Amino acid sequence: MAISRREFIKTSAAATAAASIGVQLFPGKLYGGAFWTTWHKSVCRYCGVGCGVMIGEKGGKITAIKGDNENTVNNGHLCLKAFYLNKAVHADTRLKHPMIRKNGKLVKASWDEALDLVAKKFNEIRKAHGGNALAFYGSGQAETEETYMANKLFKGCIGTNNVEGNPRLCMASAVGGYLTSLGADEPAGTYQDIEKAKLFMLVGTNTAEAHPIVFERIMRHKNKNPDVKIVIIDPRKTPTDQVADLHLFPKPGFDLAVFNAIAHILVNEGYADESFIGKHVFIKDNEENKHTFEEYKKFLEDYTPENAEKISGVPAQDIIKAARMFGKAKTAMSMWTMGLNQRMRGVWANNLITNLHLITGKIGVPGSDAFSLTGQPNACGGVREGGGLCHILPGHHLVVKEAHRKKVAKVWGVPASNIQPKPGKHTIAMFSALNTGDIKGIYIMCTNPAHSLPNLSKYWKGLKEQFVVVADSFFPTMTTDYADVVLPAAFWTEKEGIYGCTERRSQYMPKIIDPAGEARWDAFILRDLGKKMGFEKEFAKYETAEIMWDEYRSLTKGKDMNLMGASYNRLKEVRGLVWPVPTEDHPGTYKRFTDGDPIYDALPAEKKKGRRMYFYGPKAKDGKATVWMRPHADPGEPTDAEFPIALTTGRILEHWHTLTMTGTSPELNRAVPKAYVEINPADAKKMGIKNKDQVIVETRRGELEIEARVIDRPAPGTVFVPFHWREWPINVLCSDVFDPGSKEPEYKVAAARIRKA
Amino acid sequence: MPIAGVVVLTVPEKTNEILLQLNKIKNVTTYGVHKENFVVAVFEGETPNELEGMSDRIIKTIPGVLGIYPAYVNFEDIELQEDEEE
Lengths: 757, 86
Known about the structure:
Number of domains of chain A: 4
CATH class of the largest domain in chain A: Alpha Beta
Oligomer: heterodimer
Largest interface: A-B, 64 and 50 residues
Strand order of the largest sheet of chain A: 5-4-19-18-17-6-7
Distance between the termini of chain B: 20 Å
Strand content of chain A: 15-25%
Number of strands of chain B: 4
Helix content of chain B: 25-40%
Largest sheet of chain B: 4 strands, antiparallel
Distance between the termini of chain A: 63 Å
Strand content of chain B: 35-45%
Largest sheet of chain A: 7 strands, mixed
Low-confidence stretches of chain A: 665-671
């Protein structure tokens, strides 16, 4: 029977979808994708879940995308952003040639002209004002190799630690939480825990929309096992609620008391594992004084459910119910994202979640973990592991440690004295220094800070006044509006490299097609800039991505994040490797700090005697984790009579970050064409606001006219605005107060008021 | 004209009703209920955004749809090409 090409593709699509759930739709027939397409194994470009994708290429174009059914992260499924993947690659908004600002306008330039200008200006600034007058601002979307080149150029050659990246705005509090609670960054477990967990506690995460594949795994597991429970702690109702067994709605920024109250119930109703605590845990206060378990119980006396209700607004009975669900569950997995991290006490919030696992022993066993979900695809791999922040060096090394500086400098082939012994400026300090002129030149790669910083308009001044270089794949962005030089960067599928996702998994992405126009790979742009700045010898050897990766992973040898077994050859074959992976024959590590972790397994027997976990990370002492006695603290800007509504922000299913990849053509914006403010119906009634009314949202930093969406999603007293659109830059209204430990700004809570426009 | 093979994850007790609703939507072809609460379907649209918009409307308007997960998306401009297997 004749079958049209269209019918054939439809049948292939149906067969592939069915196969992804283990169903053979057309027995005996061979469908699974178009035969005329060449398929390449890769990783999704969007969020931090790390989904495997198969990319179909034909005639130099990306023509099809499949979920990689051999990849254990997503087992063949993708989320709706897959619809945008090829559109982003071939978008009309791709930047195809360098540009230089002349007489106020960006005009086309040659690569030599552009890089010569950047090298000249950077060298002039360095000579006149020192290396610390320069800065680099990178991205959790850049490849590890790209961040590695930036680190070497700025920290190793120019001699400044003013190297930051946008993960400071999303993951820094999770890093601080893991380091202070477990002694080492990144989770102890992996996604494999999902199918073994009996309870999920989802805190400050709209998992269904922001991490759909993780949500799907939770759903599939719950559907098979109806005894699996889901508790949500979030000021806003989201699509994740469809499957929640219990939802606690704290006032934004007032949840620390709730976490302590849950701990209060756990220790007072016999759910604490005192044997685990005695062998594996120190209990400390904010001054790092050690305490006994009895003293911890006394500390928690202030956090009765009733007291927590007064602070947070969450009914005491709900807190008790959540605590008992956590305590009774044989295994429990906590997951969180920006609702916890983007807070003035984000590190404390992270600590208090991890406390619940440490006091009940629900960690280090299958199905139990305190598991931070990552927002960007390589925030873990490139920036946290790759050392792309102002205080760290590649491979979990620290700038403050002389031995670490010497080790990294030796590998880089630069004098150790080039690497400054003090951390550089963190993100908010960096953009403040642009405002004051202390930083006079900045290189911005693969990110859009003129749209994404909090208290946004405050930082446009510095971008306008100083010398700004932007390397990006898309044009225009709000940041290129301020650029003196714009460099076209190769995009996903146009370059090879490594992404490291939420679960410590490093995955290889191949170059499949040629870069658009004159675009070049970011790592080569930085290498060539380094050469033009006079560091010819230092950058001579980096002919390939593999050379960069091999040099980088040599710095991980013997570290907690050992990647020595993750060579390019191996990563090209497998669906990623989960570190520590010390040798080429090591399979990777499912659980850290316990049996099966090569570092734990190699410990002397006396260290492991009588215990099932040993926290060996750089910040841990005697192999113990820390339960923190963190008191409740209000957010930086609590609501008051003048600004009585709590404003919170976030992203939505249909779009991603600042729209450079999902807003690449007009038709892509039709689904959710503009921003809106979600207002609870009870609040709307009080304010006389109807659905689709134009309203003014105002904070102490400014106001924004925006459409009202009256909907039972935010709790009364809270409003929510997505941050994606440049026409409605809600970040102008956000507070830039930041966590004193992680330096992560408090995007999630601002005091606001609303009136009809 | 993009074509996507998707899996629709549903609340189990609503799966059959969801299948009926999906069958009423233009440019949606269903391929049955599988594993109790999965509907296999193919979505067709003029643009990627149409596929996304269609998915978005289904999630927001049909009760019990927990998620839509593309497993295969073809972006070729098929109408401009010859049928190869006639």
